[in-house]
Amino acid sequence: MMRYHGNIAVLILCIAVGALPSAHSATTQEDAETELTVIRKIIRTVSSRLASARSTQDTIQKQLRKAELAISRLATELREIEKSLHRQQRQLKNLRHQRNTQNKALITQREELTRQIRISYAMGRQDYLKIILNHEDPSALARTLTYYGYFNRARAEQIEIARSHIARIHALEREIAQGTGTLKGLKRAKIKARSNVQKHLRQRKEVIAKLDKEIARDDQRLAYLKQDKNRLEELISNIKQPFTHSPNQQSFQALRGRLRWPTAGPVRHGFGSKRGLGNLKWQGVLISAEAGQPIHAICRGRVAFADWLRGFGLLMIIDHGDGYMSLYGHNQSLYKKTGDLIKSGEVIASVGNSGGNIEDGLYFEIRHQGFPKDPAYWCRRPTSATRNS
């Protein structure tokens, strides 16, 4: 964009310098008007190119936003599919365990029933009527009849229990078949979701290449970063409904030096270090981390912003009260929405490279009354990384 500003200045200067002698030597008003018409035409041409470049950049940014939001949605969908897949696998494992238990119980019941049938067969060889008629002792006869009754009831109960086991096994077999079908469907959905993610990643790569071409020069990139910085500061200043913590809870200020870092990884760019373009400095830290790695809230609060923002990609801002906020940028997915209450340490997003970045990582800021603060003074010294300047 700055390249076209430079072109305008150079063209107008050259035309003006070249036009002066002609203006002095012009003998008629018609010559002067002709030269002025040429200058105006060139200015219109360059202005049109500048407007076209701005329009192209806006279009590319919209394409980038669309691609990264699609990737975020698909990554979240894939995460839910993975959870459902694991849940379904656990359910199937449990059902198979139940089926094995029922099969063992059925074997036991069959053995008991076989034993009773053998006893019944042995007893059946004696004529039931003879046993009754041959008993002279009434008490002995009563005991015999009671035993027969008990034996028949026990056998009927064993048969009923065996039937129950068989019915339960059949029901479990149906559930397992249904669960297996669901599992296969989830696996197909997972493959499709991964394919869609790869497709949108390729589209994103193409968009980033176009964007890099548009802002190739350092002066353009500097202007671009300044616009991103101003856009973020404007967003923060417009956040309404500040979060207030309970009286029995410690304030954010009281937790200085004791907060956990939002994710594990080395600090690639430290707070206040130069960005290599003009006088711009990092207002937060950039933490190197793997894509999909969980990001945790450093403290309780309320989500003040959760959306895509140019230069920061998928961004989440948490209001911690008393003018303190934490910012998490370049995410792959956002798991919370604006207005959600957040607990300290809760997973709120996953690491990514949204916003047009090539490398994965988390951009992290802490602010008080809108002014950036060095996170290293607020968070405990990380065990897996040290600050880099």
Automatic annotation (TrEMBL):
The coiled-coil segments of this chain are 64-105
Domain of life of the native organism: Bacteria
Q: Which GO terms describe its molecular function?
A: metalloendopeptidase activity
Q: Which InterPro entries match?
A: Cell_wall_metabolism_enzyme, Dup_hybrid_motif, M23ase_b-sheet_dom
The protein's matches in CDD domains, at most eight in alphabetical order, are given as:
M23_peptidase
Residues spanning the signal sequence? 1-25
All copies of domain M23ase beta-sheet core, residue ranges: 282-375
The UniProt keywords, alphabetically, are:
Coiled coil, Hydrolase, Signal
By what name is this protein known?
Septal ring factor EnvC, activator of murein hydrolases AmiA and AmiB
